[in-house]
Write a structure and sequence with these properties.
The protein has 310 residues and is α/β, with parallel strands linked by helices. 35% of the residues lie in helices and 16% in strands. Strand 5, helix 5 (146-157) and strand 6 (165-168) form a beta-alpha-beta unit.
Length: 310
């Protein structure tokens, strides 16, 4: 009898272990990898959506920042933690897309080896059109850090391309002028480092050490070489007064790159009254992976729904 009891306990423990494994992976939505062409260059787009048969979802396209690509930024999978912005938005009913820009993740550099603001904006415009044609729904555009600058340039140059635009970790002052620089003949192709990968996590206790460690591993795996940009003076086109798209500005309370004074100068110049500015208490530049991550996702959902009340 003792032997049977021991076997029963072991089977129960094994069943619980298998259940926990199944739960961990079943909670992660199915990730789809899509390849398409923008100006004759192959681009990689990642996609997740709710499993329900009702296919009339809100569409949203996510743009990553300067250094790291879509999957470490937007779909980080850590056992026991819900850090994937893609998964969190899917749970709120979104069909979520994330684009690897040229030279990032699984999108290769073009023959020039360089990306630049105008080129990036055109790629995003083409991606937005592709999503609209595929789903019959115009997407919301979300940009983090450098991606927020690309997002602004997109809605300025192509004002009807997005249902709304969301800028998070917006790192530039509207009065900043970027000087034209002599361009290097060839890209630097600098090696990315562990220190750089962990540098955005500056608030103690806002994210687990396990999550930071996995983020560093996944970031360096996806982007071992830093992407190169030129023609940075093209950012001087950015002008809040030229944005007619409804806009949500998201700011981490302790984000060293997103200054409240700069945000205020930007926000008051927006001509469309359908605008909001939300501060995520306790967050820094990487708040989407930290304690405020659910409030960030809900802020996106609430803004999109708020616009429907007109």
């Amino acid at each position: 009898m003792k032997a049977i009891s021991s076997i029963t306990k072991k089977l129960t423990t094994l069943s619980l272990f298998l259940f926990l494994i199944f739960t961990q992976y079943s909670n992660a939505e199915k990730l789809e990898r899509i390849s398409f062409f923008s100006n004759n260059h192959p681009m990689i787009l990642w996609h997740k959506q709710p499993s329900t048969k009702n296919g009339n979802f809100e569409q949203i396209l996510l743009l990553h920042g300067r250094t790291w690509s879509s999957l470490p930024d937007f779909d980080l999978q850590v056992k026991g933690e819900k850090l994937s912005l893609m998964d969190n938005l899917v749970e709120l009913g979104f069909s979520v897309w994330a684009l690897d820009a040229r030279g990032y993740g699984e999108t290769k550099r073009d023959d020039s080896g360089w990306n630049n603001p105008n080129k990036a904006a055109l790629d995003v415009k083409n991606t937005m059109q592709w999503i609209t044609n595929k789903t019959s729904n115009k997407p919301t555009l979300f940009g983090w850090s450098y991606g927020s600058m690309v997002s602004q340039l997109v809605v300025q140059k192509y004002p009807n391309i997005a249902k709304s635009v969301i800028l998070y970790g917006y790192p530039i002052d509207p009065e900043q002028i970027i000087a034209k620089q002599t361009q290097n003949s060839s890209p630097k192709r600098e090696i990315n480092t562990k220190t750089n990968a962990a540098s955005d996590f500056i608030i103690p206790g806002s994210i687990s050490q396990q999550a930071i460690d996995i983020y560093v591993i996944e970031s360096l795996k996806a982007d071992p070489i830093r992407a190169d940009w030129n023609h940075l003076d093209e950012w001087n086109q950015l002008d809040a007064a030229k944005i007619t798209t409804p806009l949500l500005l998201l700011q981490g309370e302790h984000d060293p790159l997103a200054k409240s004074e700069s945000h205020a100068r930007f926000f008051i110049r927006l001509p469309n009254a359908n605008k909001q500015w939300i501060v995520l208490a306790g967050g820094d530049h990487a708040a989407l992976l930290e304690t405020p991550k659910f409030r960030l996702a809900h802020s996106i959902r609430d803004f999109v729904n708020w616009l429907k009340l007109d």
